[in-house]
Design a protein that fits this description.
The complex is a heterodimer of chains A (162) and B (109). By secondary structure, chain A is mainly alpha-helical. Chain A has two domains: 44 residues; 111 residues, Alpha-Beta Plaits (2-Layer Sandwich). In chain A, 60% of the residues lie in helices and 12% in strands. Chain A is built from six helices and three strands, in the order αααβαββαα. Chain A has a three-stranded antiparallel beta sheet with strand order 1-3-2, with helices on one face. Chain A is elongated. Chain B has one domain. Chain B has four helices and no strands. In chain B, helix 1 packs antiparallel against helix 2 and helix 2 runs antiparallel to helix 3. The relative contact order of chain B is 0.14. The chains are: A mainly alpha (162), B mainly alpha (109). Chains A and B meet through helix 1, helix 3, strand 1, helix 4 and strand 2 of A and helix 1, helix 2, helix 3 and helix 4 of B.
Chain lengths: 162, 109
């Protein structure tokens, strides 16, 4: 029930933002459409979304977004530098790193965050192993790779999802 | 005033998009190209949309621009991941200058 409620709140907020008008017709249409959407996507909606009903997690999620945007901007200057540099300074390869995160949604977000941050792109995920394409492999030591790629997000995602 | 800031955001966003396209041409192999394409195009497009939001403020158009930023942040890395994984499964080799391929090694086991 709690899941359905979260689902309803999420869909309804999206509807309200998209229509951007508060009158009785739009709001009641929103309720009906949200209910239909719930019926259609019951199984697709991640159950862990219910966690966001707690304000603390929500706050951490917002902080995480800001933290992520900082790294996205860094990533772009990194790409710009590599693309413009005449010698094309890259040393690519696929590395394997392990995560300590347990929740499915946290792992999904971690994979997405890795893709958006400087020089890394998640290629495959197998349980707790992440295979990551790294445009400029700085070190061959797995521990060091783990520290550079994953640790900067892991502690924060743990607060958001676990 | 906010008009100038908005145009600034859109201009910088377009520059990042351009750099992403340059990366698509210059970098070798599909994985490196995906790197450039995802990162630059995500930030570039988000900045263009943010510029639109600044221009229109909290109106119907501005709110939609903000929502699009959220959706792009969620979907762009996911599609890059799907493309990279698909390429690797269908056997696209890494560029010959690549240092290692742990995924290929683990597949053989």
């Amino acid at each position: 029930m709690k899941n359905r409620l979260t689902q309803f709140i999420t869909y309804f907020i999206f509807w309200m933002l998209l229509t951007w008008s508060i009158n009785i017709q739009d709001v009641s249409a929103g309720v009906v459409v949200s209910l239909i959407a719930i019926a259609l996507t019951r199984d697709l909606f991640p159950e862990e979304m219910a966690k966001f009903l707690s304000p603390v997690r929500f706050l951490w999620a917002v902080l995480y977004l800001i933290y992520l945007i900082y790294y996205i901007i860094l990533a772009n200057f990194d790409v710009a530098y590599r693309v413009i540099h005449p010698a094309l300074p890259i040393r690519p390869g696929i590395v394997k790193v392990k995560t300590g995160l347990k929740s499915e949604m946290a792992r999904t977000m971690l994979a997405n965050s890795i893709t958006l941050t400087p020089g890394t792109l998640s290629v495959d995920v197998n349980g707790e192993d992440y295979y990551i394409h790294w445009i400029n492999i700085m070190t061959d030591d797995p521990e060091e790779q783990r520290r550079i790629i994953i640790s900067r997000f892991e502690w924060m995602l743990r607060r958001v999802f676990e | 005033m906010s008009n100038h800031v908005a145009i600034g955001f859109i201009a910088v966003g377009v520059i990042f998009d351009l750099l992403g396209c340059l990366g698509l041409i210059r970098l070798p192999d599909v994985y490196n190209r995906l790197q450039a394409a995802t990162k630059s195009v995500t930030l570039g497009t988000c900045m263009v949309l943010f510029g639109v939001f600044l221009e229109f403020g909290f109106t119907a158009g501005g709110a939609k621009a903000l929502l699009c930023i959220l959706f792009i942040l969620l979907t762009s890395p996911t599609s890059a991941h799907a493309l990279a994984r698909g390429s690797h499964i269908s056997g696209f080799k890494l560029w010959e200058g690549s240092v290692m391929d742990k995924l290929e090694e683990d597949k053989g086991e």
